[in-house]
Amino acid sequence: MSIFKRNKKASRGESNSVISVGTRDKVNYSFNHTMPEISLYKALRENIPIIDVGILKIRRLLGGFKVCCENKETELRLKSFLDEIKVGTSGYGIDEFIGNYLEQLLTYGSALGEIALKGREIGALYNAPLNAVSIKEESPLNLNFYLRSGFEEVKCQNPELILFTALNPEPGEVYGVSLLRGLPFVSEILMKIYKTVGVNWERIGNVRFAVSLKDDDSTFSQERAKAVADEWQKAMRSQEVRDFISMGEVSIQAIGADVKIPDSQVPVRQMLEQIVAKLGLPPFLLGLTWASTERMSSQQADILTSEIEAYRRHLTPIIIRIIKLWMMLEGRICNFEIVWNEITMQDEVDHANARRMNAIADEKIAELKRNGGEVYLTE
Question: Which sign, positive or negative, has the C-alpha torsion 176, 180, 184, 186?
Fold first, then answer.
């Protein structure tokens, strides 16, 4: 038994029906020790836009890939399969599945998916919620997957169809570490600052007035005060410019006019710096116009490239497992290689310039050797 369950209404003779998904139902009980973290990290993405944008940027920067096979006919069939494979209820293509898989991996530290079979071929790929399965360590090198059904746990009988990845797990731990770990405290401070700024502007930005009436005649003070108040309300509620008519000596002051709203630019930037450092993205990719030199931007781009390559190394084994299962079901034996696209066009230019300089150097060395000259290699 796996995460995907067969439809009970289907007859036993039907072999072409796609295995139905059993993890779509919401699970309201705990997911070991990580369920509170799942809710927390989900709330972070919903409440802090820059965190959500950062993860989506990493997903887009991941780029695509192609599979090179020794047999060209197998390569064409495999490409058609990867481009047309159904993902979940409405998605198509291996890129959609890998993008969702990476997003789940970065947000929660672990990613879970499964291959759904259709007869003797792969029918679909599914990104499963983490709270649908309980993962237990059978031995230091083996994991068991248990499907949650009500308050019971049923061991999955086809673990080879389950795809699971943990991001930088701590020694002895099954689950990985979220990219957002360490940000709840910082985000809480940031949310307090934003909320306080909103409250201050609601109090001070929406100007309120104190109207004082001075009158020595105490006999008609109450009636005059009521008349002044009525005139003031009519003047303030009028949609057009209106004169305020009063009697006696009237003093009008804006409440809180002498109060200065605290400058939030410095503390907000300090909190955003922590978030940007955790995400590993250059500030300009997140819409932050911080001062940066050309050399610093180039170094940040290089660091980002290494980060994306590290994420690709986590995803490549998952792609290999899907391709190997497809070849096994198709009865094909062929060596293949996964080639990721260049991350940015700037990388293409840099690589082209490097190849050009190497070619010029090789040509100079060959010319010196033909002329009988000595060649000295220096660092």
Answer: positive
